[in-house]
Amino acid sequence: MKSTKGLRSSLYISLLAVSIASCKNDFLDVTPTDRVTDAAIVGDSTLFESFVINRYLGARITDKEAEGTLPGFGRGFEYAMWSSLTDESLYNNDDNTWLVQRGQLSPENTGIAGTLWSRSYRSIREVNYALANVDKVQMSAAHKDRLIAELKFIRAFRYHDLIRNYGGVPLIGDKVYNLEDDFSDPALYKRATITECINYAVSQLDEAAAVLPLANSTSWLNGRATKGAALALKSRLLLYAASPLYNSGSWEQAAAAAKAVMDLNRYGLHSNYQNLFINPGNSNEVIFARYYTIGSRHVPMEIANGPNGYDGWGGNLPMQNLVDAYETTAGLSITDPASGYDPQNPYANRDPRLTATVLYNGAPYRGRNLETFVPGGQDSKDGPSNWNTSKTGYYLRKFVDESMPINNPWNVAGLQPWIYFRYAEILLNYAEAQNEAVGPDQTVYAAINAIRGRTGVSLPALPAGLTKEQMRQRIIRERQVELAFEEHRFYDVRRWKIADVTENVPVYGITITKQANGTLRYERKIALEGRAFLPQHYWLPIPRAEIQASNNQLVQNPNY
Which end of the chain has fewer CB within 10 Å, C or N? Predict the structure, then answer.
């Protein structure tokens, strides 16, 4: 039996020009003018390399509601971010995020997470196509080996995205599926175990790392994989594998994988934390990044997330839940009586990464200080564009470039990176894995203190004598603030199996009232009730359309 029922999804969504070019009917035997043929791709080394490079970009999105919301290689990140599915931020205008926050995920309604499955398998199919045809292309053996290594890296990245969202998934090997294939075989839909999936992706990364260069030779190659990128992805995968949710690897393996990146001696910590996410230049903290530019267009983070007082749209609004995680400059939690924290002057003497990440009342921005107080604050409900007023009292600072305009920004030249892997993550990976493997030895302290002590942050070193559990809690907090808004928190709280705690509390914000004498009164508030997290939410549901496309042979995640 042959079926085309699921061609628009999962394994078969990407038919490329191959299926079109192979059509035998005379009335369809025309030369398409809107695509490059299969013969042209394999017959021209430049076109083939362009095909490989485009696999970094991922599938183009035509659904306007989904555009700009997807994590991974193809995501334009200025609209609803993955942070707005966690306790980091609330998206001001929903944008298909609130159902996740409220625990209403279902196979029929997956919100902004709905295209992850199909777009990942589409990319895997495209990689398999390139690998199946690379030997037909006229180019040097060394060049061919480099492209094969890049393709294996991209395929491993796509599986990593599937694993961390769904758990064990079907592994399709090198198969390139086409319209004429038989899709009725149950083995096609058999989900491998998490361990099998991790092992497969890691094997691909080991093969890629053995061939990829330590660095790209010219600036235009900076967005392509290197040995460090492959090892960094391996580090993340093995850290996840060892974590409680996965329970499919050892902490010793995870520590060794992170140490392999450290031992390359190519990476360090950028001296300006805020600037790293706007214009890192050739920073040695960046291991692998996507450099966003479409022609002369920059990514308009500024209007999408800007305060309403500047006619911004609000966008991804930091929660008080996140703001409270930043220590004081004494290196202590704000709940510690010795920290010096003043709830009526809450942003004074705080971890400098707070100022670099969150716009709060009084923070300098575009020539004035932010005003979220009422009455009369320019960035409050009393200001212009008040329908975009922050529901939490905060706006996003990270990734936002003040040199870029807020109004009519789309045709302005600029370059903003999305950093997939940076050295701070590797240090945090190592510290966590090493602490779990052997306890808080000096190498754990060194990794964490390097991040806390970097230029511009300069927080006190961690106190000596911490237990393994105490160090674990410090690392959890350090990841929360250091990696805020970088799409780690969603996966971290799940792999640690603490999401049933962190995601079952309300969205908190701040209300600031300007009193008659001009002083400000700060009061914590609930900005959104109804956040909910159920046990099944540790994994995303496979969209119902994908289950149906498999003739119900694909097994859904439990309790959906």
Answer: N
